[in-house]
Amino acid sequence: MRNRTRMIATAAAVSAALAAGTAAAVASTTAATPSAHAKTMSARVKAGGAKSAEERQGHAAIAAAVAQALHVSTARVNAALQPLFAAGQADSSSPVIAAAARSLGVSTHQLNAALVHAKLSLAPGS
Fold first, then answer.
1. For a tag on the chain, would you pick the N or C end, based on fewer CB atoms within 10 A?
2. pLDDT tens across 7-45, in order?
């Protein structure tokens, strides 16, 4: 039971973090004037480049950890998880997770467990 609670808490934290990032991106693109909008977008592109590289590295690390846990190639896992990363959802009942699990030939439970394990193993202080 403790592991299930931990998985749910992790999924909720991941969803909240992804939602916060999306909200911040949306908020940063709204500006009162076109020139302010251009400045905001310019600053976001410069800052977003580093963040995008960090996100790509994080996604690659998660894909590698999930691949290892499921005994599947990293390329297959990366391709299967792209819609999940794009959607920014980590809900275990999500159709995106179900589709990813089907494409990998595993159950949604197995994929969710591998995702949670990957997140916990890659978390700071682990």
1. N
2. 555 555 555 444 444 333 333 333 444 444 444 444 444
Range of the structural domain that residue 79 is part of = 2-122
Q: Which residues contact 54 (CB under 8 A, 6 or more apart)?
A: none
Domain count, the chain: 1
Q: Distance (Å, rounded) from C-alpha 15 to C-alpha 13?
A: 5
> Rounded to an integer, what distance in angstroms lies between the CA atom of residue 126 and that of residue 123?
6
State both tokens at 100: 């990813």
Taking the C-alpha atoms of residue 56 and residue 60, their distance in angstroms, rounded to an integer, is 6
pLDDT in tens, 39-71: 444 444 444 455 588 888 999 999 999 999 999
pTM for this structure? 0.59
- How far is the C-alpha of 120 from the C-alpha of 17, rounded, in Å? 15
Taking the C-alpha atoms of residue 93 and residue 33, their distance in angstroms, rounded to an integer, is: 41
Q: What secondary structure does DSSP assign to 33-84, as a single string?
A: SHHHHHHHHHHHHHHHHHHHHHHHHHHHHHHHHHHHHHT--HHHHHHHHHHH
